[in-house]
Model the fold of this input.
Amino acid sequence: MMTTMAAMFGALPLALGTGAGSEIRKPLGITIVGGLILSQMLTLFTTPVVYIYMDRLQAWLRTSFRRPTVTPVPAHSDD
Done:
């Protein structure tokens, strides 16, 4: 998040700038800031979902391919 914020704050002067030539640089700044916000939001929402699905897949694989447990037979004692 810190990298995204640093890049976004670095592109803000492009997006908000006024002056000579700003009409050429402004669309680039808006695109950079918008893309960074969108990619960060997608990352924050999709990463937990991927981890949840991987956890469910791991649980399913454990139950599907579990080896049968062998129960030991108790030894007879000669009392």
Notes: The mean pLDDT is 87.
